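step 3/5: co-fold with zinc ion
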Amino acid sequence: MEHKLYYRDAYLKKFSAELIEQKEDTAGRKYVTLSETAFYPTGGGQPFDTGYLNGIEVVDVEEVDDEIRHYIKDSLVVCDHIEGEINWERRFDHMQQHAGQHILSAAFEEMYGYKTVSFHLGKDTLTIDLDTERLVAKEAAKVEELANQVILENRPIITKWVDEEELKLYRLRKELSVSHNIRLVIIPDFDYNGCGGTHPNSTAEVGSLKILGWERQKKIVRVEFVCGQRVINQLGKKHEIIKELTVQLNAPEQDLSAAVNRLLGQKKELEKSVEELKEKLLKFEAAEIIRAGKTDIVSTVFQDRSIQELQKLARLLAVDAEEKVFLLVSENKDKLQFVLAKGKNAEGNLKEWAKEALSLIEGKGGGNETLVQGGGKLISGEEFIRKVTGFIQSCE
Ligand SMILES: [Zn+2]
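step 4/5: write C-alpha cells
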C-alpha cells in the first residue's frame, strides 16, 4: 500500500517517482509502472485518474496483479526520474461525487432502510441502485435534505486501516469481501464503509447534492444524482435550455408548462382540421379524375402519396363510376405503391390483374374482389400503368 500515494494524501497533485518498467500489455497498449504513484486506478466504482508522466499523457490507469499500470499515449524516454502530475479537476470531481454517493447511500439507509446495491460514476451524472421496489417523491426529498444537511455540517471524512479484529467495532453498511488491509471510510455517527476510493477530508467539500430523478428497474430503483461542481453544471445547462424556451415560447419561466400545453392543444386542433380538409380535397380530386378519365381503365401517377390516401381515393372513385376500373400509382422514395379498384358494375377478375401487377415490381399486396393494394420495387409509374393496362385489356 506504501506506493499508493493517493491513500497517504488524496490531495497530492504532483509527485516524483522512479520508473520500474515500461511495457506493452497483450493488447499492445503501452504502460509504465512506478515506484510510487498518485494516479488512482479504476476501482470501487471510481474511474481512473488522467494526467502526465514527464509530459507524456496518461490515458488510463489500471491495477493488475498488485501493480498499477499507467497507460501512456507515447513512449517515455527511459530515465530513472519521473515527474507525475494528475488532472486535479477530474480527480477532485471524482472525490466530490464519490463522497456524495457515500452520504446519499447512508441517508437512504438511515431514513428508509433502502440499501445501495450498486453505484455508477458516469461522465455527467451518477446513479445508485437501491434495494427497494418503489421510491416516492416525498422520501427522495427528505433524503436529499438530510444529505445536504450532512454536507453543510462540515463533518470530517476519516479513512482508517483496520484488521479483522478492529473491524468488529464498527457497524458497517455492507459485508466486506476482503479480510486484510481493510480500509474504512468514516463519517462519524453517520456512515461506516469499507472503501478503496479517494474522498475529500470533510463533507463540506462535496458542496451540495441534487437528486435528478429515479426509475424502477426489475427489483431495484435506480436513482440519478449529481454532487459538487456537477450541480452547478446541471443548473447552468438546464438554465440555458429554459432561457431559450422562454424566448421561443414567448413566456416567462413559470408559464412555460402552460404555454406548451396551449401549443399541444392547438396542434391537435390543427391536425383535426387538416384531416377534414384532406377528406374534402380527396373528393375534389376524385371528381377531377373521373372528369378527365375517358377510358374504361382510369389511371394516374402520383408522387409520395401514402397507400391509405390512395385507398381512400380509389373508394371514392369506385362509388362515383361503377362501371370503371381504377389504377392509382405512387412513386414513393424507394418503392412503387399502387391501388387497383373497380366499380361494382365493372367486369373482370381484379385479383388476377393484381397478381400480374405485383409480378412486374416483385411486390407484395392484398385486398378483396373490388380493391387491391400493393407495393414493390420502384419502376416508372407510367411504364407500370402501360403494362398493367395492356394486361387487363388482353384479358377481355
Ligand atoms: Zn468511497
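step 5/5: annotate
The chain has three domains: 5-86, 92-236, 274-395.
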